[in-house]
Amino acid sequence: MNSIAPKYKLPVRMNPLKDKDKYATDFVNLNDTMDIDLKRRGTPFFLSKNYGYEPTHVVLVNHKDYLRYRYKYPDWGKRPMVILFWVTWDKQTRYEVTVDAMDGVWSLRLTKLDEWIRHGLIKCHEYKQRKDDAGTNAKHSWMIDLRLCKELKEKE
């Protein structure tokens, strides 16, 4: 975050709870009224093409993270919770799908993600190879089209 906070002039600080709770959000805003979690994404989700999405613009949110956010931040109407997607990848082709280069930061409020999930407005990918996995890997992820999120602009 140290490299993107100044670049985007984000008014945030490290969440003091993060030292004790690895599942706490990464940051809080400076007046401590908003929780902010950073999701670094360096690989496109090429398979999103199979769901009707444009893979250049798709990032994933693990369903288990969504459930944890809902549990840990039940008052998100009073104290907003935001997910920041820090996306960096080069133009590339895999699985006969080409994606353009992406480099930026997008924000998504948890209330919006919840609305999309509850109303069936976004699709969920099930990891078939993880179906019987007893580990901590997510078994499902929600596909988020970054064009529906707020793109943060670099500040001079």
Structure description:
With 156 residues, the chain is an alpha+beta fold. The chain has a single domain, classed as Trna Endonuclease, Chain: A, domain 1. 15% of the residues lie in helices and 34% in strands. The protein has three helices and eleven strands, in the order αββββαββββαβββ. The chain has helices spanning 5-8, 63-72, 110-118, and strands spanning 12-14, 27-29, 35-41, 58-62, 81-89, 92-94, 97-99, 102-109, 124-126, 140-145, 150-152. A six-stranded mixed beta sheet has the order 1-2-3-5-8-11. β2 and β3 form a beta hairpin.
Portion of residues within helices: 10-25%
Strand tally is 11
Major beta-sheet overview: 6 strands, mixed
From the coordinates shown, what is the CATH architecture? 3-Layer(aba) Sandwich
Separate helix tally: 3
Q: Mean pLDDT score, rounded?
A: 89
> If you consult CATH, what is the topology?
Trna Endonuclease, Chain: A, domain 1
Low-confidence stretches: none
| CATH class wording | Alpha Beta
List the domain count as a whole number: 1
- Per DSSP, what share of the residues sits in E-state strands of 2 or more residues? 25-35%
Descriptive key words:
three-stranded antiparallel sheet, 11 strands, six-stranded mixed sheet, single chain, 156 residues, alpha+beta, Trna Endonuclease, Chain: A, domain 1
Provide a concise account of the structure shown.
The protein has helices at residues 5-8, 63-72, 110-118, and strands at 12-14, 27-29, 35-41, 58-62, 81-89, 92-94, 97-99, 102-109, 124-126, 140-145, 150-152. It has 156 residues and is of the alpha+beta class.
